[in-house]
Amino acid sequence: MTPGIDVRELALAVFAVNGQLIASGNAIVAHLGLTSAGWQVLGALRYTPEPLPTASIARNMGLTRQAVQRSVDLLAERGLVAFTANPHHRRAKLVVLTDAGREAVALAEQAAEPIDAAIAGRVGSRRIRDAVVTLQQVRDVLAEELERRSADGDSAEYHMNKEANE
User: Fold this and answer.
1) What angle do helix axes 54-61 and 36-46 make, rounded to 10 degrees?
2) What is the span of the domain harbouring residue 147?
3) Are strands 52-53 and 94-97 parallel, antiparallel or unpaired?
4) Are 60 and 89 contained in the same domain?
5) pLDDT of amino acid 153
6) Whole-number Å distance between alpha carbons of 34 and 53
7) Which CATH number belongs to the domain containing residue 43 in this structure?
8) pLDDT tens-digit readout, 68-123
9) Is residue 65 packed enough to be buried (19+ CB in 10 Å), middle (13-18) or exposed (0-12)?
10) Residue 162 scores a pLDDT above 60
11) Which of 46, 116, 144, 159 has the most neighbouring CB atoms within 10 Å?
């Protein structure tokens, strides 16, 4: 196989796993009144060492700021997150977990334990750790390439806007 084919197979596998993660996540946390999107934001906040603005959460998760803002707003309505002043930016408030948010993410993780165990049992901890490292490296290459294209004015957004204006 050529490297391009290997990379495409990896991308297709990641897309398929992502779909399954979202569907499984929705099923796992439905009884908590959460969705995968909400759980993802709660989890991101639980494992970050300090509060973050929505844009940073989105960037860390590889999602759009708008998508994360929708989730954050819904979580705030339910009292699972709150906003605090950001000493670095007047308008971009920091998002923090509330006690209820910490409890919700802990319950979600508890609900996920059986499937976590099934995955670890079949795949093995070593292969999971290797996969994490591999996916982080792929993410880094993609981010660097996207940054390079953006700096060169060669992003997909640039081309879509150009075509729309022609």
Assistant:
1) 100
2) 124-166
3) antiparallel
4) yes
5) 77
6) 21
7) 1.10.10.10
8) 999 999 999 999 999 999 888 888 899 999 999 999 999 999 999 999 999 999 99
9) middle
10) no
11) 46
